[in-house]
Design goal:
This is LRC45 protein. The chain is mainly alpha-helical. The protein has 10 helices and 4 strands. It has a 4-stranded parallel beta sheet.
Length: 553
């Protein structure tokens, strides 16, 4: 603000011209007071030239000077180029009212223009703030996404380690089961060999018994001697049997007791032989029933064991393949997402489509691998079933031979019962182990299902966050487009208003020109009238007697 009233600056034209040059070069002064400084129309013209160059002055007070009509016109013309001046006081300067009204209109136009500019600047400032806040939010969201991605990487690595440890545990359990199966197979082979030896020995004993029966019918007297010989032979054979069967089982000791009982029964009566035959028939029937039951149990247990092995192998293969594929796919997808988010944030939809395509391809690959694994498992199962069927055939043949031999003696009944009990105990143990393994597998499957569900939920959350970000970006784009439209509309309205006001100004200028022309005509007419009146008065004065008298004198 600069106040220079009552200083008579307009008296010195050169000094006031220098002052106007400095005012035109200044870009900080906003208020200037030049009241009562004897500024004429020339000084007003210089002020107008300075105002055309100045772009900071907002208020100018020129009251009580001698600007006049020409100075008012010069100031009015400078307002067309100056757009910062808001207030101009011209009272007491002999300026016509038309020019004052035109100046007021130009000042109002500048005020409106500056108000619109201030509003646009404020809006632009607000928009810039909003854009900066949105950028900050985007950076924060991007950092949050990076943190979540790192966390998911760590969780995936942990899950991979846990899955590897579980796979190793499962492999160890399977190796233990294979070793148990191999031991069971070895035991079965040993028992089969023992059964073959016992069958041979029982056959020999039956032949000896038949010989003793024939000799007993022929000669009763020599029976005692033959019995003694048979006792000696039986003792020798029993010693051999004990030596042979000591490695296989301890239950062959019952053969001696049963042989002694049979020999004592042969000494006492032949009736006891018939009773023995009846007992043997009953025991054979019972053995047949028990053998049938044992076969059924063995078949059921074999089926269950086969199913459990199939389930175990299929589940293990599925879990290993699924976990490896999921880990690899997740690593690749996360790396691709990180690169794409860093490179191009706008291409989120393309990344989602690529992820979907990758997921479909992975699913197809997983299904093909599952089909291959199933086919391989089926072939292995068929081979195992054929091998087991061959073993079952051999067992059935040996069982038939054992049944034919067991009809002759009760010793084999006790052995078969003991073996059946052992087999039932082994089968119960195997069942318990299979149930425990199934429970472990079920628990592991549930854990893996929960982990897979967690990973799916996390991926869905990430997709939801990305979609929300995309929606927010679209909303921001729409807001920016709407603001740009508003700015365009405001600019177009402002341009239209400027054009209208310029048209009004041009119309007013034309009106002023017309009025000036009318004023000039009126002045000419008045001058002509005044001249006519002067001529008439002069003629009247000359024609009057006073004029003649004065002329005479």
């Amino acid at each position: 603000s600069l106040i220079l009233e009552w200083n008579s600056l307009g008296v010195w034209e050169e000094g006031f011209s220098f002052f106007c040059q400095g005012l035109g070069a200044n870009n900080f002064l906003q208020r200037l007071d030049l009241r009562n400084n004897q500024i004429n129309h020339q000084g007003a013209g210089e002020l107008a030239m300075a105002l055309k160059q100045n772009a900071s002055l907002q208020e100018l007070d020129l009251r009580w000077n001698n600007i006049g009509l020409l100075g008012g016109r010069a100031l009015l013309n400078c307002l067309h180029s100056n757009r910062t001046l808001k207030r101009l006081e011209l009272a007491g300067n002999n300026v016509p009212s038309d020019i004052l009204k035109a100046v007021e209109q130009a000042l109002d136009h500048n005020q409106d223009r500056q108000a619109i500019l201030s509003e646009t600047q404020n809006r632009a400032y607000i928009l810039s703030k909003e854009i900066l806040s949105l950028k900050d939010e985007k950076t924060k969201q991007f950092l949050d996404l990076m943190d979540t991605i790192d966390k998911q990487r760590e969780e995936i690595a942990k899950s991979g380690r846990m899955s590897a440890a579980r796979v190793s545990q499962l492999q160890e359990a399977l190796d233990e089961q294979h070793s148990i199966m191999n031991s069971l197979k070895a035991k079965l082979q040993m028992t089969e060999a023992a059964l073959a030896l016992s069958e041979q020995k029982v056959h020999n004993l039956g032949e000896l018994l038949n010989a003793t029966k024939q000799e007993h019918t022929s000669m009763v007297e020599r029976h005692f001697v033959e019995l003694q010989q048979q006792k000696q032979e039986g003792v020798d054979r029993e010693g051999k049997l004990l030596r042979d069967l000591s490695a296989a089982s301890e239950k062959n000791l019952l053969l001696r007791n049963q042989v002694d009982e049979l020999e004592e029964k042969c000494r006492v009566q032949q009736d006891q032989l018939f009773q023995v035959k009846q007992d043997l028939t009953n025991t054979t029937a019972e053995l047949k029933l028990r053998a049938v039951q044992a076969e059924e149990r063995l078949e059921v247990e074999k089926r269950r064991f086969k199913q459990s092995l199939e389930d175990m192998e299929s589940l293990r293969v599925k879990e290993v393949d699924h976990m490896t594929q999921h880990i690899e796919a997740s690593k690749r997808s996360m790396q691709e997402r990180i690169q794409r988010l860093e490179a191009v944030r706008i291409a989120l939809e393309e990344e989602l489509s690529q992820v979907k395509a990758a997921a479909l391809t992975e699913r197809g690959q997983a299904e093909e691998e599952l089909i291959k694994v199933r086919n391989q498992a089926r072939l292995e199962e068929q081979q195992r079933l054929e091998h087991l069927e061959e073993k079952l055939r051999l067992m059935t043949e040996s069982r038939d031979e054992a049944q034919s031999c067991c009809l002759k003696q009760k010793q084999m009944v006790a052995d078969a019962q003991a073996r059946a009990n052992q087999l039932s105990l082994h089968a119960d143990g195997l069942r318990r182990r299979l149930e425990e393994l199934q429970q472990d597998l079920n628990s592991k499957e549930e854990e893996k299902v929960t982990e897979v569900n967690k990973v799916k939920v996390e991926l869905k959350e990430q997709i939801g966050h990305l979609q929300a970000e995309r929606i927010a970006q679209e909303g921001l784009r729409e807001k920016i487009a709407a603001l740009e439209r508003q700015l365009k509309v405001l600019s177009s309205n402002h341009r239209e208003a400027l054009l209208d006001k310029e048209g009004e100004i041009s119309m007013l200028l034309e009106k002023l020109r017309m009025k000036e022309a009318d004023i000039s005509r009126m002045r000419e007419e008045e001058a002509q009238r005044a001249s006519f009146l002067q001529n008439a008065i002069m003629a009247y004065v000359q024609g009057s007697p006073l004029g003649t008298h004065s002329s005479r004198k």
